[in-house]
Design a protein that fits this description.
single chain, about 290 residues, Rossmann fold, binds zinc ion, DNA polymerase III subunit delta, DNA_Rep/Repair_Clamp_Loader, P-loop_NTPase
Length: about 290
């Protein structure tokens, strides 16, 4: 059941801002431990963009109601069907046919793919073509709990939104516990772009993806672009990488996580001998390529 009250509010805000500025991407990958929350958030945005009421999205006007009940011609939901564990290629082909149609009511159409990790390989590849050639005004939302289960080629064609799992206050204490000063923590503001870049980089390393070297450079450029506190941001990136590895450790992926943590220790030493941030990221990317 869709529920516009059970959304990720920060993430909905991010999408709302993009919509208001006319800057929605053509494809999003919404990653959330609670997939229902991500699905609700996608529908929240779709209702927001189509709502006919004053307090958008009200969830009660005719447009919202048709969207939420699955009866809006511009909104397509693909999900695992009953008696099936996967999303098959014929379901994605349906989307392809839909892609040729113009929006019936609004200025664009919306495709929502729930449980995107259940796409079969042929279905994922068919989707790839669809994401490659967004000829029609379409916004696609892919919903999944774990980005590692999504083909890297799909991930790279989407804008990834990670739903936050912890409140800001506990994040602050986490950073303080990991060696940042209060002054440095105060410099870390609006970190969602960096958070996403770090997570993406980490996933590529774990998958031995040669593109990690490109992401290393993008991440370094992103850190350089921050208005203040480059050193604080660099520290922040290393803490995030360590947290990801620790998470993996508790998830039972012991060998790989331990190897990664050992590399981070190595990098700690290299940082103390003034090896630059990008060089250290490169070191990781090259080491994990094999
Ligand atoms: Zn409405």
């Amino acid at each position: 059941m869709l529920d516009l009250n059970k959304i990720g509010s920060a993430e909905a805000g991010q999408l709302q801002q993009a919509q208001d500025r006319g800057q929605l991407s053509h494809a999003y990958l919404l990653l959330a431990g609670d997939e229902a929350e991500a699905l609700n958030t996608a529908y929240w945005l779709i209702c927001y963009a189509n709502c006919e009421g004053e307090n958008k999205p009200d969830g009660t006007c005719p447009a919202c109601q048709r969207i939420l009940s699955g009866n809006h011609p511009d909104v397509m939901l693909i999900d695992t069907e009953e008696n099936r564990q996967t999303i098959a290629i014929d379901q994605v082909r349906t989307l392809k046919q839909e892609l040729a149609k113009s929006p019936a009511e609004g200025d664009r159409r919306y495709f929502v793919i729930n449980h995107a990790q259940k796409l079969t390989l042929p279905a994922a590849n068919a989707l790839l073509n669809l994401l490659e050639e967004p000829v029609a005004p379409v916004v696609t939302f892919l919903i999944a709990s774990n980005g590692g289960q999504i083909l890297p080629t799909i991930r790279s064609r989407t804008q990834i939104i990670n739903f936050s799992q912890q409140p800001a206050s506990s994040r602050e204490s986490l950073l303080l516990e990991n060696g940042m000063t209060q002054a440095e923590v105060d410099q870390i503001k609006d970190s969602s772009q960096v958070d996403q870049a770090v997570k993406y980089f980490y996933q590529e390393l774990q998958e031995h993806d040669p593109l990690a070297i490109v992401s290393a450079h993008q991440l370094a450029a992103l850190v350089k672009k921050q208005k203040q506190g480059t050193k604080a941001w660099e520290k922040y990136v290393w803490i995030l990488l360590k947290k990801w590895a620790e998470k993996e450790l508790t998830a039972g992926n012991v060998q790989q996580a331990a190897a990664f943590l050992a590399d981070l220790l190595q990098i700690d030493q290299m940082r103390q001998s003034n090896v630059g941030f990008l060089n250290n990221l490169d070191y990781l990317a090259l080491k994990w390529q094999q």
